Amino acid sequence: MAADVSAGALAQASGISSSMLSRIERGLVSPSVETLERLAQGLHVPTSRFFSDQARRTDFCHVPAGCGPVVDRIGAVADYRYELLGHLLSGNLFVEPYLVTLLPGADPYVTFQHPGLKFLYFLSGDVSYRYGGKVVEVRAGDSLLFDATALHGIEAIQVQPVSYLSVVFTLRE
């Protein structure tokens, strides 16, 4: 039974009889749309869950700590180290999660610009971050979320070392 719910508890939460639930589970009857909606409510899941092929999903990636490949990104700035933290091979959404570390000698750079949305979560350091005409002071624990088509980047480094999680979301074409 899904979600660690007993059949009796699911039948009661869904407002259907235990015998009807048993017949549905054994494939003896096809439930109506109304019955599926009641079961979904009883399980606290969307009705669409019954129609997705969860067993065939392959878009899962595990990268052990410190084992992400260091990537030379096109247009990468000197002394900005990008460790790829995962990748997905299916779907229409392209997600690029990186651990970015500014190495000694890294200079501020404010002319990053690319398609998609970007999420940054700062792990260490204090910097001034520019987004278009706005500059904000960020430090460990702060996050930023923005449209990456605008010019953006670190304008000044106040406290080192600087590291942050960078996740870029773009649609595949």
Task: Throw out a few tags for this protein.
single chain, alpha+beta, 434 Repressor (Amino-terminal Domain), Jelly Rolls, 2 domains, eight-stranded antiparallel β-sheet, elongated
List the SSEs and their pairings.
Layout: H1 7-14, H2 18-25, H3 33-43, E1 70-71, E2 80-84, E3 93-102, E4 109-112, E5 117-131, E6 134-139, E7 143-147, E8 152-171
Antiparallel strand pairs: 1-2, 2-3, 3-8, 4-8, 5-6, 5-7, 5-8
Helix pairs in contact: 1-2, 1-3
Would you identify the CATH architecture of the largest domain?
Sandwich
Largest sheet: 8 strands, antiparallel
Q: Helical segment tally?
A: 3
Which residues form runs of ≥5 with pLDDT under 50?
none
SSE ordering: HHHEEEEEEEE
Q: Would you report the number of β strands?
A: 8
Net shape: elongated
> Can you tell me the CATH topology of the largest domain?
Jelly Rolls
Provide the CATH superfamily of the largest domain.
Jelly Rolls
Distance between the termini: 39 Å
Round the Cα radius of gyration to an integer and report it: 24 Å
Overall domain count: 2
Fraction of helical residues: 10-25%
**Class from secondary-structure proportions:** alpha+beta
CATH class of the largest domain: Mainly Beta
Strand content: 35-45%
Question: What is the average per-residue confidence, as pLDDT, rounded to a whole number?
Answer: 86
